[in-house]
Write a structure and sequence with these properties.
Mean pLDDT: 83
Helix content: 10-25%
Shape: globular
Radius of gyration: 16 Å
Order of helices and strands: HEEHHHEHHEEE
Largest sheet: 3 strands, antiparallel
Number of domains: 1
Distance between the termini: 6 Å
Strand order of the largest sheet: 1-2-4
Number of helices: 6
Strand content: 5-15%
Structural class: alpha+beta
Low-confidence stretches: 2-8
Number of strands: 6
CATH superfamily: paralog of FGE (formylglycine-generating enzyme)
CATH architecture: Alpha-Beta Complex
Length: 182
């Protein structure tokens, strides 16, 4: 589970998606990117808790940011429309890939120029899983529900993955895994 890789500057090389990393690995990577550019860390760790600093630096996108990036201005089930047939040109889902991950940027990008936003691998996001969140929360908190989470807490993933059907790979599809699972 993790975000798709970027291909800029890769030339003719095929880049594999990043797989089998935990949410914890991802936030540690964000901190290392921040450190490399002299920025404050976006996350602090204690033995049992990941805390957001809100001081800048690199961080994972929120669920709302990830969905916005996937949708790319659309309001349909997929960034290609509502027809699952159209999704085949933009997504590595089980019907298209034989349940195997594929190199990134081999399908069509969305209107924002982003590849593999449906299928292939999950994208870890910065939100904690609460099944009733959107039914009980309004305003800014519903758009940006980041909060501290225990190391063993559940984090949200979006985007679907290689074994999903078209119905499971919708722009707004979500699931959750333990922050320390890969």
């Amino acid at each position: 589970m993790n975000s798709a890789s970027l291909t800029e500057g890769a030339g003719d090389r095929l880049l594999a998606p990043i797989e089998t990393v935990t949410s914890i690995n991802c936030v540690e990577f964000c901190n290392q990117l921040s450190r490399g550019e002299g920025l404050e860390w976006a996350y602090r760790f204690t033995q049992d808790l990941v805390t957001q600093t809100d001081v800048g630096g690199y961080r994972l996108p929120t669920e709302a940011e990830c969905e916005f990036s996937c949708r790319a201005g659309t309001t349909t089930q997929f960034n290609t429309g509502d027809d699952p047939v159209g999704l085949a040109g933009a997504a590595w889902i089980v019907a298209e890939n034989g349940d195997q991950t594929k190199p990134v940027a081999q399908k069509q990008p969305n209107a924002f120029g982003l590849f593999d936003m449906h299928g292939n691998v999950f994208e870890w996001v910065d939100d904690v899983w609460r099944q009733d969140w959107y039914g009980t929360t309004t305003g800014a908190a519903a758009i940006d529900p980041r909060c501290d989470v225990g190391i063993e807490g559940r984090r949200i993933v979006g985007g679907g993955e290689k074994s999903f059907s078209w119905a499971e790979a919708r722009s707004g599809a979500r699931d959750a895994y333990a922050a320390d699972s890969a």
